[in-house]
Specification:
By secondary structure, the chain is α/β, with parallel strands linked by helices. Among the domains are: about 190 residues, 3-Layer(aba) Sandwich (Rossmann fold); about 240 residues, TIM Barrel, CATH 3.20.20.70. Helices cover about 40% and strands about 15% of the residues. The chain contains 34 helices and 27 strands. Strands 14-13-12-11-10-9-8-15 form an 8-stranded parallel β-sheet. A 6-stranded mixed β-sheet has the order 17-16-18-20-21-19. Strands 24-23-22-25-26-27 form a 6-stranded parallel β-sheet, sandwiched between helices. A hairpin with a 5-residue loop joins strand 1 and strand 2. Helix 23 crosses helix 32. The longest helix has 18 residues. Bound molecules: 1,3,4-trihydroxy-5-OXO-cyclohexanecarboxylic acid. 1,3,4-trihydroxy-5-OXO-cyclohexanecarboxylic acid (DQA) binds next to strand 16 and helix 32. InterPro entries: Aldolase_TIM, Aminoacid_DH-like_N_sf, DHquinase_I, NAD(P)-bd_dom_sf, P-loop_NTPase, SDH_C, Shikimate/glucono_kinase, Shikimate_DH-bd_N.
Amino acid sequence: MATAVGTKRAFSSIVDGTTSGDGWGPSRASPSVQDWRTSALEDRGPRQRLGVDGTYSINSSARSTPRTTPTPFLPASSDSRSFEPNASIALIGIRGTGKSTLAIIASVATRRRVVDIENLFQEATGFSTAKYRKQFGSSNHNLRQEELLRTALQKFDHNAIIVCNGSSLERSGQALLQEFARTHPVIHIVRDAGSIHKHLEVLEETKLRELLSMSGPIFRRCSNYEFYNISETKAAQSVAPANQLSVPAFLTLKRAERTFLKFLSLLAGQKSLSRARENTIPPIEPGFPLSDVPTELRNYTCAVQIPLSSMLAETVDIEELEFGSDAIELVIDQCDDSRNLDIRNQALTTERAELISHIASKIRRSTVVPLIYHVSTTANSKQRPDLTCYLEHVRHGLRLAPEYITVDLSLGDESILDLVEQRGSTKLIGHIHAPIDWYDSFWLEKYETAKRLGCDLVRFTRPASFMDDNAAIQSFRNKLTALSETIPFICFNTGRAGRRSACFNQTLTSVVPETMKDDLAARAEQTPETAWITAREATHALFASFTYDPMQFFIVGASAGYSLSPAMHNAAYQACGMPHHYQTLQTPTLNSLQDLVRNPNFGGTAISLPFKVEVISLTHSISRHARAIGAVNTLIPVRHLNDDGSIPDDLGLFQERNQAGSVKALYGDNTDWIGIRSCIRRGLSPANAVMSASCGLVIGAGGMARAAVYAMLQLGVKNIVIFNRTHENAEKLVAHFTRLASNPPEGLPEALGQDSSPKFHILQSRHDAWPDGFRSPTIIVSCIPTHQVGENPSPDFTIPEEWLRSPTGGVVIELAYRTLNTPLMRQIREDAHQSWICMDGLDLLPEQGFAQFEMFTGKRAPRRIMREEVLRSWTDEQGQTDPGMVQTRLEAIDDQEP
Ligand SMILES: O=C1C[C@@](O)(C(=O)O)C[C@@H](O)[C@@H]1O
């Protein structure tokens, strides 16, 4: 057993920051750190170079290149990243990276217990690890720590989030964690040095950086995943009411929460619904129409390529990248030399690995589309890429759990098989860019190889010289399609002459960000396989070539005239380069729907009040969510029925979007619940995280109230109080959901049907006492009109004080947006304490509209555009705008989670 003894410091004391911080540096690091560094330097054999022809050459000069400051990087030994659905997750990393906070976030969302090794140590010994070491010496401390870690990893190997302390990473602990990582996710939590420094305070920042550099490789060796915890500085102000002066501190954590939970859901691999159900880690956005359909199976999708070097410039607007794109491809390219980041002649240093992790996390934090991780090997340099560097970069990519990763098919079978084995839930794209004729057997052979080795899809690109090359590619595509067993393929020509083939490639065509198209020629010089068209150009080409048709969309409702949906959707179409049009149909009956449907360019319609229930009788099929709610707010046309006359599945429905023709059937869905769920999630503090005793209050008993109840059930709320003046309607609603709970449909969380069913209570009058057995509500959704409807004046509703007793506050959502400053909103802002967060219809409308946009167009919605447009177009009932409120909310949009 090797331990840090004598005058040398223990690894744990360093990474835990428990030293006084006086004057230690790399030379005084623990032997375990030093030993590993030395061996890492020595182990690296002669370097090999990789070429498109699949041959490698030894580069002797690399051997003699002196390695300077950056610390070399060695990822954990190969492992399969396949875990049992409820396998415990261990978090490791230096103190101050946020492990404990992330553990709590994960524990609440996944209903797992937090096991903190440092706490266990204190409970077992009565000392902190630092004090114990001081008192009994390092050897004793390490023995005790090892024993404790071993027992904890065995005892809590399921359903726990295990937070490791620095002592866990002493040499014996490293072996235990490496072993644990073979069957469990072990996540290395990384954070910027500045934030860690602020947290620890005990070290000088330069020393901290040295420490990070030294400890990084050890953490990486013991882990199979890496999460870069971006420090959130600003709260998502828009969640707080416009005139709520101070923003509750918890809101700053909201984005970190979402990014981490998304990461967890990715590494858990939600490849199928049944797998998702077994898993205690919920997918981040179930219910979004496109989130259940694999991107590579949809038609005419594109992936916007963003080079790492451009991301480093920090001028990229990440959310804008997503507009009109179905994936974001992070291209690990040659970076600025001064940063020593050229992958062709540099090993993946700790610094570079961290940089890549940071950028990947930044992209995730601001977007919803999948991430493709691509290590570029084709830079226009005479020097060929180095095999070791390439593999290190790809392996590092797998640690970030991207949805897709490319692997160069010119690698030997063994290397590819190794990556296939380690991919976990990441899908592997066998990639090759070569100047070889499409008629050459080379491509078919590579396709068969990729299939044989277990790639999930392939990407073949070829630099085109002539327009005719675009015809040749079609014949190659036909050949692939005719094969008996296929995997999805991405296949297009690059360069100016290749643009046409890129436009008509069906799957994940590479596109260039709109803002970078002016430097295309220069970029292509650097990287010949770079994309040549933008997402908007690709979309334009599909419409201009009659592959797609301009469609007409509507909102149908009795008082739809005030709706902001047309402005919101039209702005989104424009941002994505779609020539669609969205308009209002204000009508007292649903009769005119027939006329809309007769129009061959009918693309779909939003259904507004009071038709959300009535319209169901006009549909041929509705989604499971709409059925569970008993109301529809979105209709899409179906133009191709299955042979047996039934409606195609989700993928089939998406494949016929944007194409005109006669309508055979109507399909209905409900996106209101998705919008309500987003608003609840955004406004609910960790203190109010949903637990079995959490209670929700729904005001009203109409279609929207049903969507609100469903959203609450989806979030696991099991105690729901309905306030409605007409008791009979409330009873109908309760009967509906009680029936549903006794026979839960697919997709409702297990919580609904298992252990205890949801409990409902009806309140009819404001004077009713809050019911016994129900806690004060932390989620309140008001679904009653806030403006005059016909002869009925707007109900000036406020909540009786007695019902507002939650000590931790909660979230109040007023669904309407015609009148914003309602009595209820005023009451919460003025009378309730600060822990209450208000959301209104201007928050909700875009959230339900994103899912609607997906259903209408088959594309992800340009979220920021839609949020902004709603605010910009809003006026009150007198046609007045509120520039101050709009400005505050517009400014806050950048900080909102996607
Ligand atoms: O209820 C609403 C609001 C809405 O009708 C509007 O634009 O106002 C749009 C609908 O999709 C949604 O269900």
